[in-house]
Structures are given as structure tokens and as C-alpha cells.
């Protein structure tokens, strides 16, 4: 071991002050006052600064513009909306700063002795070296450590040659105005949300992907539907052949083959890299530890305790490479911090049913086990069935002109238990919550059908899928084409 002078000794050191780090701090403090939270960047969560909140502000503006333009279909002729890009971005940034302010208020309420600004890395399993902005260093001795270092955007290194014409979602929310055109690489959650929003705000959008996947969907039928419905609104090629990407005087030049195989050359103002995020664990000095890592170099942790192969080290949030969502980061941080604060006693924490949403239109939602996970676990024995509903003829959806979408619900043969769902359709964020509660309660499909359904509501579509699933599980009557007791178009 190298010689070093310990600056401070604590029971629990937490690397990172985002959602997971703050949750870990609060949980650890329930057991000990000897807690130190180390943060190198600006305080404030990814969600508030550059994630879910500013993106929803941009989406809200886009939805408003889209409804204005769509109004003619209801016989209400408002004409084409006039988009003030500067005003749009001004509100996005102002409200974003307001949300960040709430987080900063909570951080400011933490005693100074519990906070340390700087970037931490391991010296050995029990010691962290912290590099401060003024180039000085501290050495922290910790009995237990929580890694909550978050994540950052990931993209091919060659794109750095594009300079300021390369942007990630973090950069978009610093724009003072909207550009005329962008090429979005990555039709995942971030790319899909931002790309569609920018399109609806008058920006020319080209979206490219690899492998044909759209959003988080793993069900082939839903993925095909998503590819079709989004491509009807803006250019989307989820399995693109892009030949060249070059910096130009005015932006970025692209040469690609379109979906008909024709070579197209065009120029856009910016390339938006939405190709995923990478856990910030590669700069923590993990090579100094004898710790089990996954294929991406991230410490492997127990799902319920967040404990790594080194019993005194825990990991939570985006850094854990599990489910990179705010509510998951908060849950994981609480579990990891609680266990770190408990000294030698480690307890399993509550892991809720997985739930995820994409705030596109139509929305996308995932609940419980995905199709891919179920197919891997039960596909070989044919032990599950799929219940389906199309929202294209669903009553309330047609009334509101949001009748695009498809939902698949999965159930287990024999037990009749509801396993999960993948949805693309209207109000999917709300449908997903109902299904997630049913999944966490370990309800069967029959029990779910015993719950009340009002008429006319979009939720009736879920009942249709449940009835289809119940029939396929041989637990209920066969589906019929029309059911007056359900209401028209349910």
C-alpha cells in the first residue's frame, strides 16, 4: 500500500450527490452521523438538470403546438402555429432552473461537515483520494462506501471532430433558440422524445438507428408498429446505413442510404447524439480493488441489497447499470445507504415492479417483465400467452383522435399470473401505473378483470387485452367481436 496521510475518517462515504447519492445520504444518516457525501460536479440531479424535467418542458411546448395544428380535424380551424424558438427555450431553461433550485435547497440544508467537493477515486478498498478544484487533494478513510457516481452520455469518439456541432441532450437545454435542422442518432428513449418534440416545434429532424429497435420495446410486433407510426411523422430509419458524417461550415454533412436504397446527401445544423449513457465508474480506480465487474466494467451488485462482492462497498443509481430511472435511483440509493449505515447487518430492500415510460406520441410504456425476458425464461416450454388490444378502434381513443397504438399483456399458463406488458399508445404512462400496481400485488389476470372499469375511458382497452389474455390462458370465455355490456369500441 502506498504511503498517504488520511485527512478524514468516516463510517460511510458516498461518491456522488445526485438522486441516488442524496437518498443514500439520508438513509445512512438514520444510523450514523459519520457520513460524507463527495461530489465533483454541480449539485442537482440528472433528472432536474438535463433529464426528465427539462425534456418534458420541451415536450409540453411541442404537444401544445401539435394540438393547435391538429385542431382542424375537430372542425376547429386555428391554422398553423407560429413557433417562437427563443420563447420556447427561455421557458424550458427558466423552469429547469426552478426545479434544480429545489434540489439545491435540499443540498444546502446538509451540514457542511457532511459534504466534500471533489472527484473521488479508490486508493485501496478502504481509502478514497479526492481531487479538489484548486488542485489540492484529500484522503478519506471509510468503513463503508456507496458508489453513486451517475452516468454520462456515450457516443463514438470520432464524432468529437464535429466540435460544437455535436450535441448531447445536456447541451440542448442550453440552447437560446431552436435550430432549423438536426440529425438524431439513436431512436431510444432520449432520442425519440427529443426528436419528435423538435420536429413538432418546426425543426427538420432526421433520425437514425442501428438494429431496427425503437425505444425500449422488445416485443417484435410492437417494435414494428412503433417503426411505422413514428416514420409517418418524421424521417426515421432505425436500421440506417450512414456512410459519412463530416463537419461543414454551416453544420454537419451526411451521406446515407434511404430506406429505398437511394444515396442521399444532406446537411443539418447539429448532430444530436442520443446513443445511450455510460456509468461513471471507469474513473473511480476500480482496478485498485479485487471487485467483481460486469462486461461493462461496472461492479456487480446484489439486486436486493446493492452490496458488491466487497461486502463494505455498495452501488446505486445510474452507476449500477441496472435501471437508469429516477425512481429506481432513489430506491437503490435508499437501500444502499441504509445497508452502509447498518455496519455489519445487511438487509434486503424493497424492489418495486419495473415501470418505464417514453413521453412520445403515442407514448411507450414497459411494465414488469419485458417480452424478451419472458421469452427467454418461458418461451421454450410455451408457458406464457399474449393478450392484445389495438387502440385504433378503441372508443375513447377515437373520440380524442389519439387512436394509434397497440398493447401486449403477458400471462403465465397454469397460474394465470400477470407477468408484464409492453404498450405503445395513448395515455400509456397512466395505463402502466395501473398494470404496475397489479403486477407488484402479484395479481392474476382473472383478478385484474374483477377490478372496476368505467366507460368510456382508454383504460377499457386494457380490459380488452386482459380478456383476450384470459381466454388464451383457458381461464375465461372466448373473446367476442362486440360486447355491448362493455360499451361501444371498448
Query: What is the CATH-assigned architecture of the largest domain?
Result: 3-Layer(bba) Sandwich
Percent in helix: 25-40%
Percent of sequence in beta strands? 15-25%
Low-confidence stretches: none
Tell how many strands the DSSP assignment holds: 22
Report the CATH topology name of the largest domain: FAD/NAD(P)-binding domain
Biggest sheet descriptor: 7 strands, mixed
First-to-last CA distance: 69 Å
Outline of the structure:
With 490 residues, the protein is an alpha/beta fold.
Describe what you observe in this structure.
With 490 residues, the chain is α/β, with parallel strands linked by helices. It folds into 3 domains: 8-41 and 118-152 and 278-341, FAD/NAD(P)-binding domain (3-Layer(bba) Sandwich); 157-276, 3-Layer(bba) Sandwich (FAD/NAD(P)-binding domain); 355-486, FAD/NAD-linked reductase, C-terminal dimerisation domain (Enolase-like, domain 1, 2-Layer Sandwich), CATH 3.30.390.30. It has helices at 19-29, 46-50, 52-70, 85-108, 169-172, 189-200, 220-231, 326-341, 371-378, 395-399, 428-440, 445-449, 460-472, and strands at 8-15, 35-39, 115-117, 119-124, 127-131, 137-147, 151-153, 166-167, 181-185, 204-208, 235-237, 241-247, 252-257, 263-268, 270-273, 277-279, 313-315, 355-358, 363-368, 384-390, 406-412, 418-425. Strands 1, 2, 3, 4, 5, 6 and 17 form a 7-stranded mixed β-sheet that branches. Strand 4 and strand 5 (127-131) form a beta hairpin. The chain is globular and about 75 Å long.
Amino acid at each position: 500500500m502506498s504511503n498517504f496521510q488520511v485527512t478524514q475518517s468516516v463510517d460511510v462515504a458516498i461518491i456522488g450527490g445526485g438522486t441516488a447519492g442524496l437518498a443514500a445520504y439520508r438513509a445512512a444518516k438514520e444510523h450514523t452521523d459519520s457520513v460524507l457525501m463527495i461530489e465533483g460536479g454541480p449539485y442537482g440531479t440528472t433528472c432536474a438538470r438535463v433529464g426528465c424535467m427539462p425534456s418534458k418542458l420541451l415536450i409540453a411546448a411541442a404537444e401544445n403546438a401539435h394540438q393547435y395544428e391538429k385542431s382542424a380535424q375537430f372542425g376547429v380551424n386555428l391554422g398553423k402555429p407560429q413557433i417562437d424558438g427563443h420563447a420556447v427555450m427561455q421557458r424550458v431553461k427558466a423552469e429547469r432552473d426552478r426545479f434544480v433550485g429545489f434540489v439545491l435547497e435540499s443540498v444546502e440544508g446538509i451540514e457542511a461537515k457532511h459534504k466534500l467537493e471533489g472527484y473521488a477515486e479508490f486508493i485501496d478498498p478502504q481509502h478514497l483520494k479526492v481531487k479538489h478544484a484548486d488542485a489540492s487533494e484529500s484522503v478519506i478513510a471509510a468503513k463503508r462506501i456507496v458508489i453513486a457516481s451517475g452516468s454520462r452520455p456515450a457516443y463514438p469518439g470520432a464524432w468529437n471532430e464535429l466540435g460544437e456541432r455535436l450535441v448531447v441532450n445536456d447541451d440542448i437545454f442550453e440552447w437560446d433558440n431552436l435550430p432549423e435542422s438536426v440529425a438524431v442518432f439513436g431512436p431510444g428513449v432520449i432520442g425519440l422524445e427529443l426528436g419528435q418534440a423538435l420536429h413538432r416545434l418546426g425543426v427538420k429532424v432526421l433520425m437514425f438507428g442501428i438494429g431496427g429497435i425503437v425505444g425500449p420495446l422488445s416485443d417484435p410486433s410492437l417494435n414494428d408498429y412503433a417503426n411505422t407510426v413514428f416514420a409517418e411523422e418524421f424521417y426515421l430509419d432505425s436500421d440506417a446505413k450512414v456512410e459519412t458524417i463530416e463537419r461543414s461550415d454551416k453544420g454537419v454533412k451526411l451521406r446515407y442510404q434511404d430506406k429505398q436504397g437511394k444515396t442521399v446527401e444532406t446537411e443539418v445544423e447539429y448532430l444530436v447524439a442520443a446513443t445511450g449513457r455510460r456509468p461513471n465508474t471507469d474513473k473511480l480506480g476500480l482496478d485498485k480493488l479485487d471487485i467483481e465487474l460486469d462486461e461493462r466494467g461496472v461492479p456487480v451488485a446484489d439486486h436486493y441489497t446493492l452490496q458488491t462482492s466487497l461486502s463494505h462497498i455498495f452501488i446505486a443509481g445510474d452507476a449500477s447499470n441496472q435501471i437508469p430511472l429516477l425512481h429506481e435511483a432513489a430506491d437503490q440509493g435508499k437501500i444502499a445507504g441504509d445497508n452502509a449505515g447498518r455496519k455489519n447487518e445487511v438487509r434486503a430492500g424493497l424492489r418495486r415492479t419495473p415501470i418505464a415510460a417514453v413521453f412520445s406520441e403515442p407514448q411507450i410504456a414497459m411494465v414488469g417483465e419485458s417480452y424478451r425476458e419472458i421469452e427467454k425464461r418461458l418461451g421454450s416450454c410455451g408457458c406464457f400467452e399474449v393478450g392484445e388490444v389495438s387502440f385504433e378502434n378503441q372508443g375513447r381513443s377515437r373520440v380524442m383522435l389519439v387512436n394509434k397504438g397497440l398493447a401486449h399483456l403477458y400471462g403465465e399458463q397454469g397460474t394465470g399470473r400477470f407477468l408484464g406488458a409492453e404498450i405503445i399508445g395513448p395515455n400509456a404512462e397512466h395505463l402502466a401505473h395501473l398494470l404496475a400496481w397489479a403486477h407488484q400485488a402479484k395479481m392474476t389476470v382473472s383478478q385484474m378483470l374483477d377490478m372496476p372499469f368505467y366507460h368510456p375511458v382508454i383504460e377499457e382497452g386494457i380490459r380488452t387485452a386482459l380478456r383476450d389474455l384470459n381466454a388464451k390462458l383457458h381461464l375465461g370465455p372466448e373473446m367476442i367481436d362486440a360486447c355491448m355490456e362493455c360499451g361501444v369500441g371498448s
